[in-house]
Amino acid sequence: MKVTSEKKSLKRIAVEGFVGGTAWGLGTVLGAAVLLAIGGLILTQIKTVPIIGKFVYNVIEEVERYQSR
What we know:
The protein is 77% helix and 0% strand. The protein is built from two helices and no strands.
């Protein structure tokens, strides 16, 4: 295996850093959105648990009331 040292230009380093950071940020946002959506779906199914169910019911009531304006 041959190891070569490649000297990268400042422009290439900046572009690679920007693309890598953008991909990381996009992945983080999409991952958080998926987790929050799954958590929301689970919470909407927990109407039988007294404390959480009542809270979720109140949130749904407020959203529906706001949408009907």
